[in-house]
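Section 5.1 Outputs to date
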Amino acid sequence: MPITINGSPVPIPSDPRVSLLDLLREELHLSGTKKGCNQGACGACTVLVDGERIVSCLALAVQYDGRKVTTIEGLADGNGLHPLQAAFIEHDGFQCGYCTPGQICSAVAMAGEIARGMPSHVTGELDSGTITLTRDEVRERMSGNLCRCGAHNGIVDAILEVYGTADARVLEAAE
């Protein structure tokens, strides 16, 4: 079975040592996903696999046979931007832009986690059934994605604009 990347089937690489990141960047020329630390520590290479975030530098492409991978290029709907991409522009959620694709993919998956009721370390009222997306909640959930330029305030503002007042039904539709 091939991997489905941004809606298109892609054959599994013949070399089982090829990372998902290298498949995306070097073989498919999808340069939006960035190679930062290549050790899984910075989040620049974050992509979605079946709606969940992973760091693609630590993932072997063969592991994702039959799975659905979405990169930053696959989030937009036709020529229109994903709402989070537009919010990043509006809130200046980037400076150099290197971490931005990973930040956006991570935030989209974060919205799905909240919709499924997955708490973070700072989530209060675990038995209330709802998770309030506060600045602290966003910062905790996005802590695996680093920005060397210091655009974290704009990133948090963009995420809160898109997902901050949404309920779980809206968040699920945003995935």
